[in-house]
Amino acid sequence: MIKITFTKVEGRSGAYWLLLALSGAVASLAPLSALYMFLNGHMVSNMTNQVPWGLPIVMAVYLIGASAGSLVMSATSSVFGKVEYKPFSRMAALMAFLLIVAALMAIIMDWGRPDRLMVPFFHIQPRSMFSLNAFLYSSYMALGLVYLWAMFHNMKKLERTLGLMAVGLAVLVHSGTGAIFGFVYVRELYNSPLLPPSFIAAALSSGTALMIVAVYLTFKAAGRHLDERLLHQLGNLMGVFILVVLYFLFIENVTRAYAPKNYEAVGFLLLHGGQVTNLFWFGLVGMGLVIPAALVFNPLTGRSMLFIQLAAWMQLAGVLIERYIIVMPAQLMPLEFFPDKEIASVFNDGVYATYTPSLPELGYAVGLCGVVVFCFTLAVKLWPMLPTEARHLHPVEEAQVAVEEDGEIAGRVIRVPGA
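Below the sequence we write its predicted structure tokens.
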């Protein structure tokens, strides 16, 4: 019988407690930065009336995407039948929950009024994605916890049902996040029907990259056996998702560039936007998409764990840059209130804005990442999140595990090659 056994990490070594202390120190930057901005007002940030969405919103969108991608990765074994990925299912579900909590922390801090947390639930506007997302996010968190509980109690049928629901809700949640921007028709760089599906593609690529990094580091730190062929497969899967992201990115910008009314916006993003243009071509397209895809698909580097890890880290950084490019450039461009007319006023109408994250904003962003790492490090010690080993399964073994989990043959005959 092939059995996957999950156990707690002992966490008795000095290295474990050092990691917990360091991640806790980094995590403390989040409440300290939030308190500082709450007491002094958002004026201590570099957000303005023209640029009301800064780094906290970039982090929120980024973390929501990584959470959605992680939850889909968690469901690959129970919903899509990839039982060899089952050793990562609990880790991925836990990571999905922690990431959505961190994302909501970023959103609540950006409100400036955390005491009004429940207001969206009592003032519902069906035509507002902000109003709808309040219910999507809360449902997503609740479902993620129940799904994790079902895995802990080995409730296979419930796990499959909840896994399927989790995949659907993850798609809805991040589609809703993309719709927040895509439905803003007054800004050329926001308004796009392709943003919701492109958000999903980027979520899948970043979620897979996150699993590659988290699984490798966690198994190595815990001293448990990890068959690197599993990460090779995840690397190829990440490469496929990256190609989908590239496709959406190409189609979106070609479509946008086709309309004469968008020429200025497209030129700002792709040609003469300075830092924005550099981030697009070198940060997103180059470092975040093309190079990672080349690394995982190249036969010489695609089998090297060093290059797979490098590709995963570059993809995570690239998607963060992609989120920044989605959120910020549209705000930096002046709104065109009167087409073909030049506007000049004391309010800087018609002037390009600038934005650089302030120290409190940077501290809060880094602190959110620290919160995720600290809680994850603590959780693997408190609950059985990791299997004793994770190894690549041959087709016969994979089928055997599936049958054992179902508890029945269900009419399938398993033949051993050569028998």
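Residues 408-419 have pLDDT under 50 and may be disordered.
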